[in-house]
Design goal:
single chain; 126 residues; mainly alpha; 84% helix; flat; Chemosensory receptor A; transmembrane helix; receptor; membrane; transmembrane
Length: 126
């Protein structure tokens, strides 16, 4: 009789755990889930920043297609040069920001950077 009670209580406990997991009440995310969440945040940030900083390049490329005077030697040559200089800056800012995103979210990248590149730089300066 006691075995049936133990089996019944184990089944009830398993059902309770299953319901909690399916309803999202599991308060302790596993290490794997936390890492996956961090990777998703990093990926989303990199993609959004890339979209933001490549939008001027896409717009300028479209403008070249639809406006024949927007080229070197054209009527809007100065605007062409200024816009592509600004695009060069946005590309550089994109790379700069991504570097810090990787430092923040990727511990392997951070460790490699600190152990190899940073240490070599500090030792060569002093």
């Amino acid at each position: 009789m006691e075995q049936n009670n133990n089996a019944g209580s184990r089944m009830a406990e398993m059902n309770k755990n299953k319901e909690e997991k399916s309803s999202g009440k599991d308060q302790n995310p596993t290490k794997k889930e936390a890492k996956e969440s961090l990777v998703m945040k990093q990926s989303l940030m990199v993609v959004l920043i890339h979209i933001i900083f490549t939008t001027p390049r896409m717009l300028a490329s479209l403008f070249v297609v639809f406006e024949p005077r927007y080229r070197v030697g054209g009527e809007y040559q100065n605007l062409y040069f200024v816009s592509y200089a600004a695009i060069s800056v946005t590309d550089s800012v994109n790379a700069f920001v991504n570097f810090f995103i990787y430092l923040r979210f990727n511990s392997k990248f951070t460790n490699y950077f600190l152990e190899t590149i940073y240490e070599r730089f500090v030792s060569s300066v002093s």
